[in-house]
Amino acid sequence: MSPVDEEQMLGLKGLREFLRVRTSYDVLPLSFRLIVLDNDLLIKKSLNILVQNGIVSAPLWDSHNSRFAGLLTSTDYINLIQYYCQFPDQVDKVEEFRLSSLRGMTLAPQVPYASVSVGYQNKLKNDRAADVLVLTTDIEKAIGVLPLETVSVHPSEPLYEACSRMLKSRARRIPLIDIDDETNRETIVSVITQYRILKFIAVNTEPHTMLLKRTVREIGLGTYKNLITAKMSDTVLDVINQMVVHNISAVPVVDKNNVVLNVFEAVDVIPCIKSGVYDELTFSVGEALCKRADDFPGIYTCQEDDRLESIFTTLRQSRVHRLVVIDDNWHLKGMISLSDILKYVLFYGEEEYATIA
Ligand code: ADP
Fold first, then answer.
1. What is the pLDDT of residues 9-22, one digit of tens each?
2. How far, CA to CA in Å, does 273 sit from each of 47, 59, 90?
3. What pLDDT digit, counting tens, does each position of 230-278 carry?
4. How far is the CA of 351 from the centre of ligand 1 (A)?
5. Contacting residues for 56 by C-beta, under 8 A, at least 6 apart
6. Ligand 1 pocket, 339 CB below 6 A?
């Protein structure tokens, strides 16, 4: 092993030890607010609450059983949109859906729709009659039934465990659930995200992260093949379809020369549907990006020759949710997600590294 590799492994070992002695409680700020939504709330009202509070997800509470009922995220709204596209004649029903009915919709994306075009509705009716039938039954059944168990972690468990559970379940955030001593009932303490954990690592472990001298190219960090991209003129629905089919949370927007112009993220869907008018989904990506909040931090880029150490410096200093890998002329080369970084930190050199998708 070369001295640089030895240093790199030493850095990783330091980070892993840090994650084993810290807990999710340590990541939480001293004072924070937590918005929890009742599972009986109408979906359209939940959208307004998220937008008004400047948040993109919230834990759900089942007040009938006094239980945590899962996390509401932009993926749920994307599922709803997929449902709406597959059953356009049921738009009135969509308006009446409550949050509790969202969980049953996880089936919807597995019935991919070919493309969103004028002829789509008829094509679906003719070609996919069987799928439609199965789906309708499942969603009807799902309304009013208890949601599935979701991944969560106790706030006092080591942070390493929270990260590992997130990576293995492909969740981008994990709820911290405690049991109240007196009532013996579940309490939602908070939710931690991959973003917050990486920020915590970046801010608190500089002596370790400065040892990570290998470049993005050398460690193969991120995805470089079969990249999914969008054009400014594509519709929001087309991009949503790509995100669902490929299970990704962002799509770089490029011009005809593959030069990166922007990134469309799953959370960009929320402003498009907040008015309840799903017609806005036929808007172009360019129009949808104009709806971003004024404080949108922008997109972050890096190059294949950048060291992991410098990526941690960017994470420390900025609100980074992913990095677009570009060349000197802004041509798209790859995408590095926060899960790619976290997976490398936790598992590189171990058996799990190859097995976690
Ligand atoms: P995260 O899991 O952190 O939310 P993503 O869902 O965007 O991030 O990424 C999941 C995986 O897909 C990662 O390995 C990432 O490198 C890859 N990926 C991200 N965006 C794209 C894209 N546009 N095309 C192909 N692969 C992507």
1. 999 999 999 999 99
2. 8, 20, 16
3. 999 999 989 998 998 898 999 999 999 999 999 999 989 888 887 766 6
4. 21
5. 50, 73, 74, 267, 270
6. yes
342 with 163: CB under 8 angstroms? yes
- Residue closest by Cα to atom 25 of ligand 1: 227
Other Cβ atoms within 10 Å of 282 Cβ, number: 13
* Ligand 1 near 249 CB (within 6 A): yes
194 alpha carbon, distance to own chain's centre: 9
ipTM computed for the complex: 0.96
Please tell me the pTM assigned to this model: 0.85
Tokens (6 digits) for 51: 């937008």
Q: Which amino acid residue places its CA nearest to atom 15 of ligand 1?
A: 337
Sign of the torsion formed by the C-alpha atoms of 311, 313, 316 and 317: negative
Closest by CA position to 324, among listed 242, 256, 194, 227: 227
Please state, in angstroms and rounded to a whole number, the distance separating the CA atoms of residues 319 and 295. Answer: 11
> Residue 145 — pLDDT band, cuts 50, 70, 90?
very low
Q: How high is the mean pLDDT of the chain?
A: 84
Position 63, amino acid: S
**Alpha-carbon span 320 to 297, nearest angstrom:** 8
Tell whether the torsion through CA atoms of 233, 238, 240 and 242 is positive or negative. Answer: negative
Residue 119 pLDDT > 80, yes or no?
no
Q: Is the CB of 228 under 6 A from ligand 1?
A: yes
pLDDT in the model for residue 23: 97
